């Protein structure tokens, strides 16, 4: 087969079927008939001389050749997106970086990581999209996002082909407005009994650690509110409605932005943040910087506060 024989539209149809796991769902996504997608998928397999998909029950699964083809197709269509973005702003010459941020990631953490990225790559055009963890991973898998910042690593699923890099692990403390600090700051943590508290939702990994920490000390606070969005939690904390947890290393930022001060650290409780990207040979240069630096981004950002 000559290089110019490869029909990239056929490759797109294969890519859609591989992502959807079904010719019917791929046809719906592409706005085509099932027969058209099936016919052109067959033409691609004949051109390549290998089966790319095999039936498994009511769905399709990738063959070894199919996994190889999908990896290359991901790179090809990502390059197409890069080309479109570059030509859309020829005078600016900026490269788009689309980052998904889960609600559980503190905005201060996201800012510090992305601020460093923008300094390293001044020609970037940054797009930040907030959302739920599973939704953002799905967007990452189909190349609508370049990077996801989350409070947990990506699950190990063969069809996702994702990699996770630990950005930082920071100790957690309870913070409070000056009024609440005066009332509950002394004799920490005993005074927390019955204290008004703002906590992450129970699905947040941090919540289980905090609950266990309180239970081990036989402390039962009065939970005023539970939040999936860490910024909203701190906003309620700024209003003096309750004591709230946050990374101790960010205490100066929290003091300035939310008017709250630490009243005590939670020994043994910490929170981790991860950068998640797809596994590919040709990686976005800004994503490569984040993955290569790993915890270096957090260490540079938190160094002065943690000292």
Task: Explain what the structure shows.
The protein is an alpha/beta fold and 307 residues long. The protein has helices at 8-20, 23-30, 34-48, 64-88, 107-120, 133-141, 178-184, 205-216, 230-238, 251-258, 285-293, 296-306; strands at residues 53-56, 59-62, 95-102, 124-131, 147-150, 162-176, 196-200, 222-227, 244-247, 261-278. The chain has a six-stranded mixed β-sheet, with helices on both faces. Strands 1-2 form a two-stranded antiparallel ribbon. A two-stranded parallel sheet has the order 7-8. Helix 1 crosses helix 4 (64-88). The longest helix has 25 residues, at 64-88. It is elongated, with a radius of gyration of 24 Å. The model is unreliable at 301-307 (pLDDT under 50).
Q: Tell me how many strands there are.
A: 10
Globally, the shape reads: elongated
N-end to C-end Cα span: 62 Å
Strand arrangement, major sheet: 4-3-5-10-6-9
Give the ordered list of helices and strands: HHHEEHEHEHEEHEHEHEHEHH
Q: Uncertain spans, ≥5 residues at pLDDT below 50?
A: 301-307
The chain-level mean pLDDT equals: 85
List the SSEs and their pairings:
Elements: H1 8-20, H2 23-30, H3 34-48, E1 53-56, E2 59-62, H4 64-88, E3 95-102, H5 107-120, E4 124-131, H6 133-141, E5 147-150, E6 162-176, H7 178-184, E7 196-200, H8 205-216, E8 222-227, H9 230-238, E9 244-247, H10 251-258, E10 261-278, H11 285-293, H12 296-306
Parallel strand pairs: 3-4, 3-5, 7-8
Antiparallel strand pairs: 1-2, 5-10, 6-9, 6-10
């Amino acid at each position: 087969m000559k290089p110019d024989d490869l029909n990239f539209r056929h490759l797109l149809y294969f890519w859609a079927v591989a992502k959807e796991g079904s010719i019917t769902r791929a046809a719906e996504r592409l706005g085509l008939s099932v027969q058209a997608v099936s016919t052109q998928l067959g033409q691609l397999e004949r051109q390549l001389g290998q089966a790319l998909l095999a039936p498994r029950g009511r769905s399709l699964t990738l063959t070894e050749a199919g996994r190889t083809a999908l990896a290359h197709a991901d790179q090809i269509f990502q390059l197409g997106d890069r080309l479109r973005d570059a030509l859309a702003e020829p005078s600016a010459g900026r490269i788009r970086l689309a980052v998904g941020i889960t609600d559980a990631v503190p905005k201060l953490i996201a800012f510090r990581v992305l601020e460093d990225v923008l300094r390293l790559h001044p020609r970037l055009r940054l797009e930040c999209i907030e959302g739920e963890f599973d939704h953002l991973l799905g967007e990452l898998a189909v190349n609508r996002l370049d990077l996801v910042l989350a409070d947990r690593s990506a699950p190990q699923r063969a069809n996702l082909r994702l990699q996770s890099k630990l950005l930082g692990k920071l100790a957690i403390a309870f913070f409070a407005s000056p009024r609440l600090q005066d009332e509950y700051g002394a004799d920490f943590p005993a005074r927390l009994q019955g204290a008004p508290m703002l906590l992450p939702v129970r699905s947040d990994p941090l919540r289980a650690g905090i609950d266990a920490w309180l239970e081990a000390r036989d402390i039962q606070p009065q939970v005023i509110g539970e939040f999936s969005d860490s910024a909203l939690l701190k906003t309620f904390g700024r209003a003096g409605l309750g004591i709230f947890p946050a990374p101790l290393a960010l205490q100066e930022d929290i003091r300035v932005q939310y008017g709250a001060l630490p009243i005590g650290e939670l020994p043994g409780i910490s929170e981790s943040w991860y950068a998640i990207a797809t596994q590919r040979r040709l990686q976005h240069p800004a994503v490569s910087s984040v993955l290569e630096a790993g915890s270096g981004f957090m260490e540079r950002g938190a160094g002065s506060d943690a000292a």
